[in-house]
Amino acid sequence: MIYETKILKPNEEGINEAAQLLKSGEVVAIPTETVYGLAADALNENAVAKIFKAKGRPQDNPLIVHIANFESIYDYAKEVPEAALKLAEKFWPGPLTMVLPKKDIVPKITSGGLETIGIRLPSNETARKIIRLSGTALAAPSANLSGSPSPTCAGHVFDDMNGRIPAIVDGGSCDVGVESTVISFENDAVRLLRPGFVSFEDLKRVSEKVIADEGIFQKLEDGRKALSPGMKYKHYSPKARVIIVEGNLESFISYVSMHDSEKTYSMIFDSDKNLFPFKNLTYGDTSLRQAHEIFDKLREFDKLGAEIVFVRCPQKEGIGLAVYNRLLRAAGFEVITL
Ligand code: AMP
Ligand code: MG
User: Fold this and answer.
1) Nearest ligand to the C-alpha of residue 181?
2) Whether residue 151 has its Cβ less than 6 Å from ligand 1
3) What is the DSSP string of 139-152?
4) CATH class of segment(s) 6-216
5) Is 182 in the pocket of ligand 1 (CB under 6 A)?
6) Confidence at residue 233, expressed as pLDDT on a 0 to 100 scale
7) Pocket lining: 148 vs ligand 1, CB cutoff 6 Å
8) Cβ of residue 19 lying under 6 Å from some atom of ligand 1
9) What kind and span of H or E run contains 116?
């Protein structure tokens, strides 16, 4: 179906219209503190099927279920371990998704065929109002076409979803800019499946034992089951070939000088700008800023017609690990160490 995609304001009227569409089984893009989500009633199979269709998302890639208040967790999750309660108390509402055994009420299409769901209570007020008014939980993956960089403003969503969905609620630019942290629970440990704003170090301050899943840093060997299915796909990618280049500015400059061409660009730090003599976009100096900028800049390279993008390697601590993880996937794990 071809839609005329409406842009709704995040006021009472816009939020009401979004909620009505969601109630009637439609898909609406909504702002969250992480990235824009492509939302539908998590309990309605037909509605959820429309999300997969609009994104072109593989059916085995589960959707995160968004709730508007803490107690709703018990409507959808069969068991909530003590460790999850402690983390929710500290980080909810906020960008932390917890993988828990699901109740039967959540259809398999929502969980990508798994017996678990990823569940999250977002802090974005507009998102929470829309969830509340729609009277259900909302399944909402990032509102981009599958494989392309996640959208962090309504314009990004429009670029990917125009004609594919009835409406986008424009809540401005997302605070965090990268998707939520995803964790699961096993015996006495918390496993970090996808890094985000809630960092490995943050989790360690609350839970004694936190394990970083190897899927964060490397491509899974063929045949190994991804604990976080989204992590097995090339992802977050502009059309250009992205290459992460690890090393200091001097060696980065000399590397780029040897590989420069008309359609070669670099993504560098703000503080590199004055010293860097080749075509570039900057993505900040701090990890927080880089998280906010990364997807916007990756999309910008497409508009510039870039064919190769060399990226200055970010810090890997704190939220920097989330930035590095997204870049690794955009680069299809291509890293050059100088
Ligand atoms: P997105 O909403 O596009 O950021 O993608 C959601 C991601 O969360 C998926 O790709 C998975 O990696 C992860 N996820 C969601 N639900 C589950 C689950 N039940 N088990 C493991 N990972 C999950
Ligand atoms: Mg996504």
Assistant:
1) 1
2) no
3) E--BSS-TTSPPP-
4) alpha beta
5) yes
6) 63
7) no
8) no
9) strand 116-120
CATH, range 241-337: 3.40.50.11030
CA 60 to CA 19: how far, in whole Å?
27
Q: Which ligand is nearest to the CA of 146?
A: 2
What's the confidence (pLDDT) of residue 171? 98
CA of 146 to the centre of ligand 1 (A): 13
Give the residue-averaged pLDDT of 24-48: 98
Give residue 107's identity as a one-letter amino acid code: P
Q: Where do the CATH 3.40.50.11030 domains begin and end in the chain?
A: 241-337
Nearest to 332 by CA among 225, 206, 200, 241: 241
Residue 295 pLDDT > 90, yes or no? yes
| Closest C-alpha to ligand 1, atom 10 | 230
Classify the phi-psi angles of 172: left when phi > 0, otherwise alpha if psi is within -120 to 50, otherwise beta: left
Q: Are 36 and 155 in contact (CB under 8 A)?
A: no
**Listed residue (63, 58, 57) closest to 106, CA to CA:** 63
Residues of the chain with pLDDT > 90, as a percent, come to 91
Task: Confirm or reject: Cβ of 238 under 6 Å from ligand 1.
Answer: no
Tell me, in angstroms, the distance from the centre of ligand 1 to residue 62's CA: 5
For ligand 1, whether the C-beta of 99 sits within 6 Å is: yes
* Per-residue DSSP letter, 225: P
Question: What letter would DSSP give residue 170?
Answer: -
Residue intervals of the chain classified under CATH 3.90.870.10 are 6-216
Instruction: Please say whether the beta carbons of 104 and 58 come within 8 A.
Output: no
